[in-house]
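Notes taken during the Thursday session

The instructor put the following on the board and asked us to keep it in front of us for the whole hour. The protein is GerMN domain-containing protein. We were told not to look anything up and to reason only from what is written here. First, the residues (188 in total):
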Amino acid sequence: MRRVGLLAFVTAVALGGCGVPAQDEPHRVELPRSPLTAVTTRPAPTESHGGAAVVICLTRSGRLAEITRRLGSPPSVQQQLDNLTVGPTRAEQDNGLGTALAGLTLRAHRAASSTEVTVDFTEADESNARSDEVLAYGQIVCTLTARADVDSVVFTRDNQRLEVPRADGTLSRGPLRAGDYASLIGPG
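Then, after some discussion, the predicted structure tokens were revealed:
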């Protein structure tokens, strides 16, 4: 009996000494968000000029490339999408960055308190096949899910969900996340 008591005491001390305080009720744990995926890292934005640092996913050599742009204030989801569809700046183009979103009109919608964004998608000329379609969807998904308030993106046209390609070539109507395009993410 004495050994059982000693064993219980040692176990309690070992568990209590791990640095995790005992709690009476469960609580929500907020884990840090990965900017895109665990396999890439993003340099920390500098605070020298103020404003808001936002992630925009452009393309370079057939891959997705994350860049950080400074805006005067934190943009809405639609403003960040508009910033993406403008394409690379002259300096970014000189650095080899491009876009697969030329000729697209995009509208973002999000229900109040939702972390899922719906992007209404139309092309200027729908009869043209796009060889960079996966990159175009990847740019949008990776840009929007880099926001702390967006977890996933779905695409629609005329209020109908679109079946869009993921990096592995499979099609999905469901919510897409940056991880669906992780294999296309290259150095920024």
